Amino acid sequence: MSEKILVVEDEIELLDFYDKMLTAEDYTVYKSETGKKAIDIFDKEDPKIIIMDIKLPDISGIEVTRYIKEKSPDAIIIAVSAYGEKFKEAVNAGAYTLVQKPFLQKELISLIKDLTQSSETIKDEAIDVSFTKKKVPSSLTRVAFDAVITNMGEGSLRILLKKTNLDRYIGNLPPHDDSPSITVDEYIILIQNIFDIFGQKGANAILYICGKEGFKNSLKNNPALFGVAGVALKFMPDEKKKKFILEKVLKKLEEIFGNVHILEEDQSYFYIKLPECPYCKGQKSDSPICYTPIGFYEEVIKWATGKSEKVEQIQCIAMGHENCVFKILK
Asked: Percent helix, strand and coil across the chain, each rounded to 5?
């Protein structure tokens, strides 16, 4: 018997789109344009998966989510909305994971399949990584997991861990320290799956937080390195502060990821060049997508100078460029 899915969406065209898309994947689809009708269908049909628009004309999707989870704690609810600020409220009400409009059809189908498969049946597609078997510090892995929880909820992290074959971390998150955790190859696949599951918009927010929190953890875990650097920076002008700390940080990143980090400069800017980039490897995009290093470098500059400055990615391998390049004002 095919899996039952209840779709709750007040936009008729989008509701019909869901119906065709899911029926083509051999799901049994029940449709509702209102919260009240959704409750009636749920009580009668008891579907396992519910796709829930948060904004409905009568009862809010959050209220319907709360009702369904009280009746059936095992029901899996995917909250859908164009309004990102409602996501945490939906998670608190019982939504398992979150999808922000607009989304790609393949992303939603992939998510539903992951939710209806056991962890044993979830297999990665062949992904070319071949980067390095070096181990990423636990703190960097942990901030990635925490960023998913913060933005998308714990259910989303479980989906991500299963898809990435990192089930060992479900209910057992790595510590905030420099002990070894996943390999760089696994870290690359983790980032690829963040894009696959949450789409570029959702992934960008998650990965940007990863970068910012990653540097904050590095400060705590490397007191000797940053303590000495802090003393040396005290009497330097901002331009020299930036160059000094960037050289030290890029050397540390090379040790962690095993790829070359090149620091260049002209009269106005510093440029960080990555001929190999773990943050966008295997991806294709029309715009830059390496938000983890952007967040990381912004926190580096803020720590060194006490000023918040934007870091811009001006080239990205995912766009077909030869290198990933980041621009920082001197």
From this structure: 55, 15, 30
pTM: 0.68
DSSP secondary structure, 203-259, as one string:
HHHHHHHHHHHHHHHHHHH-HHHHHHHHHHHTTS-HHHHHHHHHHHHHHHHHHHH-S
Pick 4-114's CATH classification: 3.40.50.2300, 3.30.360.10, 3.40.50.300, 2.120.10.80.
3.40.50.2300
Instruction: Determine how many CB atoms are found less than 10 A away from the CB of residue 71.
Output: 12
Question: φ, ψ for residue 257 (rounded to 5)?
Answer: -95, -15
Amino acid (1-letter code) at residue 23: T
Largest Cα–Cα separation, the chain: 72
Superfamily of the domain at 226-329: Trafficking protein particle complex subunit 3 (3.30.1380.20)
The 10s digit of each residue's pLDDT in 103-127 is 656 667 877 776 665 433 434 443 4
